[in-house]
Amino acid sequence: MTISRRKFIQTTTAATTGAAFFPAITELAHAGKPFRAAADKIRVAAIGINSMGWADINAVIKNPGVECVALCDADRNVLDKRAAEFAGKGIQVKTYADYRQVLDNKDIDAVVIGTPDHWHCLMMAEACEAGKDVYVEKPIGNSIAECRSMVAAQERYKRVVQVGQWQRSQKHFRDAVDFMYSGKLGKIGLVKVWGYFNYGNPILKQPDTAAPAGVDYNMWLGPATKRPFNSNRFHGSFRWFWDYAGGIMTDWGVHLLDYALLGMKATAEPRRVSANGTMLRNPGAETPDTLTTLFEYEGFNIQWEHVIGYGAGIYNRQHGIAFLGENGTLIVDRNGWEVVPYEKRMEAVMLQKSSDNGLDEHARNFVEVIRSRNLGDLHAPIRVGAEVAILSQMGNIAYRTGSTLHWNAQKGEFDNAAANKLIANDYHNGYKMPRA
Fold first, then answer.
1. Which of 23, 239, 300, 359 could cross-link 245 (Cys pair, CB 3.0–4.6 Å)?
2. Residue 175: which domain range?
């Protein structure tokens, strides 16, 4: 029997909250605003609309009673393009280059944040303070400290905050977890999580140049280190540089490791973390294009690995999560899930294919909770996003320090001074990290 959506959320929220990171807190059932009737319009703005932010806002406005009233981007070329696309559909929007003007607009009820990762924390916290509900892209933060700060901001202002980990809204992923909890696999000793992505041409070193016309580069940088403009660090390739993101580990990793944590009812508090990686293909980037990371827990391990430039990997799948139990292995990815038995220890489960659109379902859940104000109904609340983002940051810190790290859950820090320096990222250009 498939677990209900409400039961799934209640179970997973309890299973993925780590006390060392987030003190025990009781969320109010109603988040600062009264119930919103179905007839009431929800007015939404999107900040950062070049890629996932654009997909997100389009998914959100598919819901009845929701309208996009504003778009914001530091690149005027992108902004004009998206505004024209909306105009072609009969949707007229205001356009902004500065997100703070969006937050100052009292007519906007909610915002979608689809900027590069280094902006997520500050924008989300300020949006909550301004009384907006928030759909924020994953990973929620670009450091462990940012994740803690974002959890604190949501709790302080009691806003609806949905993290863009939309696999949390897909039925076949929920069904796979339901099977995991049945115990039929027996004891799970290892969870393998992987991504082998063919991203096309290698990232080669490029010279610094002037920013393209129409780009407010200072606004794009925001709290990141001031550097000359370089095309490798801009738009989609920003994720390969530590100033702005954490590579594949914090990009695809948060989607996939999320279900490893969920299936094992684990938190972002492994006993030990180690990582080995290298740069085989992308000399113009910083984050490793080949990486293997081991998260050691009491009684089981989670292993992450990725390679850029390939098209398939373990079990002939580009990406996935495999729970290796005594009786068989459950394998799940975005296409579906199945169980491969060991000998005759259990019955096989043939591939159960995906049957819904995860992003659309996730956006629908966001809108439903904006109306109901029942925060417990969110499929990916901020603490869910924080747990897996923190775990991914731990893996990257182990790689960057070249050390096997032991986590002290009581102190909330590593046993390694160099690693502890990477728990928080510095803010520059007059910006300050929101208080935790």
1. 239
2. 171-355+390-420
